[in-house]
């Protein structure tokens, strides 16, 4: 299997190989559980580490005793250090900037989407209102969207919501 040299490889855990190492930065315990349950339901083989805020995320990523994750999911609104600030620090760090970063938010403010795109996020996911919506979005992110968006980030593939998936946008 060939991979392009300057882009992110497809996640390994999708072909029955090693589970994906995922870090989820999310301060809401219910949202953490929902995310992990939806990953399992979507059949994404993964090991998820959760952190409560952006500072904890940056500290975890800089801890060299831990292997780098395959992908990070960052909630935009968190205490101590918000998701946008954490994203900026990660993308400014030459050792961490290659880790795919997916922003999570309840909102779809154009300014947030634009700002995180400019700061180097790989994807912006609007949190769905339902469990089945979360499963559908994670399937889209890991099985369909990954190759198209993460290998070639373009603006129209950057924002993912339950609404634009159910409109047949693939």
Structure description:
The protein is of the alpha/beta class and 170 residues long. The protein has a single domain, classed as Rossmann fold (3-Layer(aba) Sandwich), CATH 3.40.50.2300. Helix content is 42%, strand content 16%. Strands 2-1-3-4-5-6 form a 6-stranded parallel beta sheet, sandwiched between helices. Strand 4, helix 4 and strand 5 form a beta-alpha-beta unit. The longest helix has 21 residues. The N terminus is likely disordered.
Q: What Rg, in angstroms, do the CA atoms define?
A: 15 Å
- Percentage of β-strand residues: 15-25%
Share of helical residues: 40-55%
Strand order across the biggest sheet?
2-1-3-4-5-6
Number of domains: 1
The biggest sheet, with number of strands, parallel, antiparallel or mixed sense and barrel status, is:
6 strands, parallel
Nearest-integer average pLDDT: 82
Number of strands: 6
Helix and strand content put the structural class at alpha/beta
């Amino acid at each position: 299997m060939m991979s392009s040299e300057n882009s992110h490889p497809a996640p390994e855990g999708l072909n029955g190989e090693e589970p994906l190492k995922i870090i989820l930065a999310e301060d809401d315990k219910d949202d953490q559980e929902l995310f992990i349950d939806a990953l399992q339901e979507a059949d994404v083989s993964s090991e998820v580490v959760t952190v409560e805020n952006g500072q904890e995320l940056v500290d975890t990523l800089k801890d060299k005793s831990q292997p780098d994750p395959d992908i990070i999911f960052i909630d935009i609104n968190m205490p101590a250090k918000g998701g946008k600030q954490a994203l900026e620090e990660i993308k400014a760090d030459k050792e961490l900037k290659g880790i795919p970063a997916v922003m999570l938010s309840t909102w779809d403010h154009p300014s947030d989407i634009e700002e995180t795109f400019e700061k180097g996020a790989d994807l912006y996911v609007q949190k769905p209102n339902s469990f089945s919506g979360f499963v559908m979005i994670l399937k889209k992110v890991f099985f369909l969207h990954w190759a198209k968006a993460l290998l070639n980030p373009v603006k129209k593939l950057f924002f993912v919501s339950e609404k634009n998936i159910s409109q047949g946008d693939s």
